[in-house]
Design goal:
two-stranded antiparallel ribbon; Rossmann fold; 7 helices; 6-stranded mixed β-sheet; alpha/beta
Length: about 210
């Protein structure tokens, strides 16, 4: 900004192994969102290297990054990002549509993903017919449907009441127990404590 150079991330060095459950915590402005955007291949780092599932994504173009996002990362956001006019099942199918998966296979895989989050009986319901916790579980099913290398959850309990929060965190515990890699971005210490390891950020650095 003008003559002032701001490093949103300053020399962050971290390794997350397959099957780990890691939380990233820190105050507003600490660099959590930028780190999440880099991990999720939404932003390209201006320096250094990022290996995702053994693949160097540091210098890929936008089309290549979009392909990596669709194949290797399942996103769960605070706002759910479900399409209101579509059923739960159609929302879960969307990443498979982008991947060019045939309709019959999309149907089977989306039902399996909903079954994993305990919502297969609500497959035909639209988001406004589901509670907040159920909508977030649909979002988790959508994140799982491509069998990604990593689930990246950005403040996934931020819009949920305490009961729905426990519901979603319980689901993450089950996914982790089944061997899924989870990276959870949060500002809530009690949520971060669900993880095996907590990375604390301050002023763009891991402290």
């Amino acid at each position: 900004m003008g003559t002032q150079e701001v490093h949103a991330l300053a020399g962050v060095d971290a390794r997350i192994d397959e099957g780990e459950y890691v939380a990233v915590i820190g105050p507003s402005g600490s660099g959590k969102s930028t780190l999440m955007n880099v991990l999720g291949c939404l932003d390209i780092p201006t320096g250094g290297q990022y290996l995702l599932d053994g693949e160097d994504v540091s210098h890929m173009n936008e089309a290549q990054l979009a392909d990596v996002r669709n194949r290797k990362i399942g996103f769960v956001f605070q706002q759910f990002h479900l399409l209101a006019t579509m059923s739960a099942q159609r929302n879960v199918e969307l990443p498979l549509v982008y991947a060019g998966v045939p309709a019959h296979e999309r149907h089977e895989r989306s039902l399996r993903a909903l079954e994993r989050v305990g919502l297969v009986e609500r497959a035909d319901h639209r988001p406004n017919e589901l509670s907040g916790g159920q909508q977030q579980r649909v979002a988790v099913a959508r994140a799982l449907v491509t069998e990604p290398a990593m689930i990246l959850a950005d403040e996934p309990t931020g819009n949920l009441d305490s009961s729905s929060t426990e519901d979603v965190l319980g689901l993450f515990r089950e996914l982790h127990a089944a061997g899924r890699t989870i990276v959870l971005i949060t500002h809530e210490h009690e949520v971060a404590e669900e993880a095996d390891r907590i990375l604390v950020m301050k002023d763009g650095e891991l402290t």
